[in-house]
Protein: Thiol:disulfide interchange protein DsbA
Amino acid sequence: MYLQLLMELMGMNTRFKPITIIIYTLFVIITSSLMTVLFYHIFVFNTFSNNDIQDSSFIEFNNEQVLSSPIKESNSIIEIFSYGCHYCAISDKNVSQFAKNLPEGTTFKAIHLNTKNGDGLAAYAVVFATLEEMGIESQFRSSLYDSVINNKIELTKKEVLKDWLKQHNIDTKVYFEISQSSAVKERLKYMTEITNYYQITGTPAFIINKRYVVYQDRDFPEFTAYMIELLEKSHKESP
Structure:
């Protein structure tokens, strides 16, 4: 293409000198090459992307960040999940078993993903916070996974949610009263703070003793051993 352009320019009866044509041709070639390199870095290699933290299965926070963490529990493992998360549903029983066999003195807590807008996977955070405040969330979690993922029930709609509550013998009046309480609002705020602080963009995510965020990248038995290793490592690095 460039050779053809050069021949056309040289064949034209213009005022351009040969050196001008050569310089112009070199300029076109260099510019094209630079644009090609830039394309690969932006769209293929993601050189200029600031989303590295989102794509990693392991994220470490420094001592200062650990001290500023919104997580209240020390020596803890926090799972962040969503009722709309297929992988959360699959690993739920394994996670529950893992929580029962943690080292002595370690606390485990599961919270629902929540964001300021409350959309996407965070859409069911209010349901979680309300049932948690009622003290019955864990016994209905499997049903909630099944309803949202498999049966496509839109629990974000009040009337649909009301029917679901009735089907599961949950007092709708009590539920909606508690859903508007300050206690539930505090739970939602806490969940949002953790989601934002640790930049959680996918579920399930596990926060190890305020310092590490990990996403499952291996079979669950190996993954649980990995989390225990990180928990022990975090004790040595405590600020």
